[in-house]
Amino acid sequence: MERFLRNKKKTTLIDLSSQLHNQTSSFEINPHHITYSLHKDAVTLSQKLLDIDESYWPNGEGWAIEEVTLSTHAGTHIDAPYHYGPTTNGSPAKTIDQVPLRWCFGNGVVLDMTHKSAGEGIDDEDIKKELDRIQYHLQPFDIVLIHTGASKYFSQPKYDLKHAGLVRSATEYLVDQGIRLIGIDAWGLDRPFDIMAKEAKEGKTQFWESHLLGREKEYLQIEKLCNLDQLPEPFGFTICAFPVNIAGASAGWSRVVAIIEEA
Fold first, then answer.
1. pLDDT in tens, 118-163
2. Are residues 85 and 158 in the same domain?
């Protein structure tokens, strides 16, 4: 959290993005790896490319570089409609580079679902009840954040099975209100895979139901948010969540930030 004065207003920035690091790569479903170079390593390269040896570098140290191997769904990221399927309502689904930036910047509202247990579904009635509780009426292009509390497990194996998730009715209700970006502090927007797979095999529900809504109705989702408990109020803040511009991709990483301004 950072606080400063901007345009004579007290401004607070809250980072809602989880940190990508090697400690979790061994148990990630979408694994990643970061290789770190030393400042001294750059000398070998500069000598090879430019004939600039260590005598040209203060203390014999050059630049630092990291090489990261990861999927577009690693860390805090935004899923594009193309992730859900090749088409949306019969038209080609938008990839992340085609997503309107307008959808990724707007008034934020956080809905407290921490009372829901791991694997439990969050439906449209849960959404309506929480909106009534906080006395908020959704507006088109609001950015809705679902607070489950699951982000505290991100550093633990099997964290992807420890969250409540949206069922189709909840996601559809939000999209029908003009919401284009929904975020959650969990591995996925839907319930955990093990619960959905069991119910699908029993013929109870459609597997991946919230995601699959995106084949019919266009929307984006942010996965793996954190620090939603730091937001002082359920609304009255702005969310900035622009994805990295990757050609033809189903998702893009995002540094999601809540901006709070006070007169």
1. 999 999 999 999 999 999 999 999 999 999 999 999 999 999 999 9
2. yes
- Separation in Å, CA 93 to CA 19, 87, 108, 218: 29, 4, 25, 8
- Return the H-helix or E-strand segment holding 11: strand 9-15
Pairing of strands 143-147, 105-112: parallel
Whole-angstrom distance, CA of residue 135 vs CA of residue 118:
26
Contact 220, 88 (CB under 8 A): no
d(C-alpha 151, C-alpha 72), whole Å: 19
Contacts of 254 (CB under 8 A, 6+ apart): 17, 76, 77, 78, 104, 222, 241, 242, 243, 244
Q: Strand (E) positions, 143-211?
A: 143-147, 165-166, 181-184
Do residues 139 and 54 share a domain? no
Determine the Cα–Cα distance for residues 181 and 105; give it in Å rounded to an integer. 9
The residue among 41, 69, 97 that closes a domain is 69
The reported pTM is 0.96
Nearest to 95 by CA among 105, 107, 87: 87
Of the residues 69, 93, 125, the one at which a domain ends:
69
* pLDDT single digits (tens) 194-214: 999 999 999 999 999 999 999
